[in-house]
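Our platform keeps sequence and structure together, in a single record for each protein. Nothing more is needed to write down the fold, since each code stands for a local backbone conformation. An entry from our holdings is shown next, in its original layout:
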Amino acid sequence: MSDEQTPRADAQLVRAMGVPSLAANIINTTIGASIFALPAIMSKNLGAAAPAAFVVCAVAMALFVTCFALAGSRVSLTGGLYAYAEVAFGRYVGFVTGLFFFTTAVLSVAAVVNFLVGTIAAFVPFLGSGVARIATMLIVYGTLAAINVRGVRAGAGAVGVVTVAKVIPLVVFVAVGVFFIKPEAIAWPGWPSSDAVGTSVLLLLFAFFGIEVALIPSGEVRNPARTVPRAIYSALALTTTIYMLIQLVAQGTLGPALADKTTAPLAESATTFLGNFGRVLLLTAATISAFGFMASDTLSTPRILFALGRDGILPGWFAHVHPRFRSPDVAIVGYAFITFLFSLTSTFEALAVMANVAALLLYIICCAATWELIRRDVRADGPPFMFRGAQIVPVISLAGIVWILAHATSREFIVTGAVWAVGTVLYVVRVTLARTKTSTG
């Protein structure tokens, strides 16, 4: 792909998204089930100093989203990070970017379903262990697969219900809970160690990821040089503020006990000032939010399997379309099965960290692509988003990613490396077969 970006089918898309709609899409995509679980883990790792991890995450994400803004204003094709990588480095790197995106999605869904089952078990305890836990996971995945096989409209309807159901309880939690904070419970204990912060940030980033997903429809954004940066900065600021307030209310109402409430920390916190109503409200919101995240993901990510089947990288039956509902049914069921298997392998926390490692490797490609796009002065629609010293931002971002990844274990890298190796083999086989077919045909 050349610097003169080939418009392809993107030219047919309507550029209707402005700053408010794109920012709202980013916030809705970012704020999800993880914030209902992470406050307890942050308290366990850092105690009352947990807000430090949120500050570090916000700074890191500000650097990352600056790269997204710089790249997004230069590449207006639909596809988000995938499009940035392909324009900068070609199809193979674009393929690897899509592969890491797919890996992140699988591990994220596997993590969230573990949280979801734990939340359901807070209502019905026997569903939280053994065969009942596995059966609950199967029912969740089966339900989502059935919804999405019936077509994108049915899937989109399921996603649309979630936004209000997850946001209103969080607003109530913060608005009421701030009046019940005990000052001694949030007293600053001093800056924690670098290792403690790094380990916490590696997990907490799970709550911030999602911006890259919301940027996929870049081909439908008006004036991307203006819209993309304004939308992502405003969305990041609002998201960070909400997260900080949630952590402060949970820490301020439960104190050190928050660290032990790993199953449903916000529900336990709400119980202290809203009684059983608060507990049920937050448990319900957490359940709906987790299910909504999974519904949104299983609406979109199986299309990657469909595309790989269509392009011959995976077996052709992944590109099968349901004769009645016109949906990629085999890809949807196959994706549900893959994520189900990963769900059985570990806990929410461990799977979330693995997802974050895959996402950070994805971000490395994006940061490098940003530097390359600036170096080549690639342009899309009008003057790109630019400022003095912009070219150093990807370098600083890469340094930050390396620091965060230094707190990961070999297990996380092995999983992602194995996926990359298998994907690369499939890509090479496809390219070789295509060349052979061309030379003989």
Notes: The chain has one domain: 15-440. The first helix runs from residue 19 to 30. Residues 6-10 have pLDDT under 50 and may be disordered. The CA atoms of residues 223 and 381 lie 7 Å apart.
